[in-house]
Design goal:
Helix content: 25-40%
Main location: cytoplasm
Radius of gyration: 18 Å
Largest sheet: 7 strands, antiparallel
Number of helices: 4
Shape: globular
Oligomer: single chain
Order of helices and strands: EHEHEEEEEHEEH
Pfam family, one: SmpB
Family: Belongs to the SmpB family.
Keywords: Cytoplasm, RNA-binding
Number of strands: 9
Protein name: SsrA-binding protein
Length: 157
Amino acid sequence: MVKNKKGNNTLAQNRKARHDYFVEEVYEVGVALVGTEVKSIRAGKANLKDSYAQIKNGEVFLCNMHVSPYEQGNIFNKDPLRQRKLLLHKNEILKLIGYTAQEGYTLVPLSLYLKKGRVKVALGVAKGKKDYDKRQAIAEKSAKRDIERRIKDNMRY
């Protein structure tokens, strides 16, 4: 099992999501998985890159999340890129439908983690960034890094 320094059990992260989107709200949702998928995810074989969530017929599905087949799973392994149902309350789904009805909003999984032995997804309601927003964020990050480096250098003397 992979553990972070902060004490949370993060199994996979979508690092690109915060770079490409402004995350407005985050929901903690469960995922309907098969036993071999859970074992594979616990082994760190999940990838959230290019994944997204979609609402179909009042249900939310996670698309494009890659879970490598479990090595000892043989016939019980499922398709690595299959759609997986996300488990939310009805009022949360209605809220998400309202968000996604607005232009520019989408549902993006931010991370995959364990909570009380269950696999959870941090699902973000996000609005796409323009190229100039991304450049501005990179410039701010770089400036902050430079400032901290100078402060550190000044503390040495």
